[in-house]
Amino acid sequence: MLEVEDLSVFYGDAQALDGVSLSIEQGEIVAIVGANGAGKTSLIRTIGGMHRPTKGKIRFKGVDITGWPSYRVCDLGVGQVAEGRQIFPNMSVLENLEMGAMLPRARKLKARNLEHIYGLFPRLKERASQFAGTLSGGEQQMLAIGRCLMGAPELVMFDEPSLGLAPAIVQNMLAIIRTLNQDGLTCMLVEQNVAVSLRLARHGYVLENGRIMLKGGGEELLADDRVRQAYLGL
Hints:
Radius of gyration: 17 Å
CATH topology: Rossmann fold
Order of helices and strands: EEEHEEHEHHHHEHEHEEHH
Helix content: 25-40%
Structural class: alpha/beta
Number of domains: 1
């Protein structure tokens, strides 16, 4: 579904990504793990059309989307749940969700998708008229996921979905991602929480200093001594 080939990105003179290549098959959960500053968010933002690569190719379902603006990438079916949630705090929960359905691909599906999201997240239905900024951190993460799903994506890139959440809420969020995947959604999971994300993913990539250093099955990477020493403290 997604192919990234030899991708390089610079911010001025600073290189954020250096020859990154990866692929995601339809129906998979793929984890991109690494320390803070490894280039994980730069990768997501470049795939999503918010940064232009200096080198490399990005293909989604066989279409070369390299350098496309973000609105075109989204309307092709690539969604993103941003780090820090990025909700609109002074708009209601319902208004935030409706913003997600502004894409041409999603407008006719708005009512159906809203009911689906309320089924996934009953708390959002209960708080539909409440200002989003007054929600708890976990509820805001639900809203960020729901707003993304309102755009009818086929692939969703989750950027640090566990950030700032209590452990019990993290487990709930990851269970939701697993459920969405079982329902047919392809997922890229970008996380600092290496153990949790690799247990969830079919395949994983370890990103260090803008380069892919290791790749393999999720359980295979969890058992790799280099991963255990560098990220799990074992």
